[in-house]
Amino acid sequence: VQLQASGGGLVQAGGSLRLSCLASGSIVSADTMGWYRQAAGKERELVAEITSGGATKYADSVKGRFIVSGDNAKNTVYLRMNSLKPEDTAVYFCKVVGRMSYFGIRPFDHWGQGTQVTVSS
Q: What's the pLDDT tens digit per position in 74-108?
């Protein structure tokens, strides 16, 4: 299973960005897909996640500004980030938890490569 994240960049405060993460490989199901971020000198933290059933969870700091969505058929998770603030600056990582086909059905828990989001004031 491989995860490919895209969509990061530099944006002014108040602007918007959309991140995408495509999971590929012998995926049987992508049960939970989400986004984490790690700012310089800080620990990685959950930003938002969505289950295959559509249940979502957000960090308090992004509620009302970020929207996580998923396309189960494409094994893709998106993060729409609105009203961005300088404190949102971080490397954003996608994570997918699910089941894969590899000599049988096995669980997997994979991270994508990070994508940098920089918000200027």
A: 999 999 999 999 999 999 999 999 999 999 999 99
What is the percent of the chain with per-residue pLDDT over 70, rounded to a whole number?
100
| Residue 32 Cα distances to 74, 98, 104, angstroms | 14, 7, 20
Q: How much is the average pLDDT of 39-46?
A: 97
pLDDT at 34: 96
Tokens representing 71 are 């396309």
Q: Which residues pair with 74 in a beta bridge?
A: none
Please, are residues 79 and 66 in contact by the beta-carbon 8 Å criterion? yes
Q: Tell me the residue length of the chain.
A: 121
| Phi, then psi, of 62 in degrees rounded to 5 | -115, -5
Strand partners, 105: 101
Cβ-contact 89, 107 below 8 angstroms: no
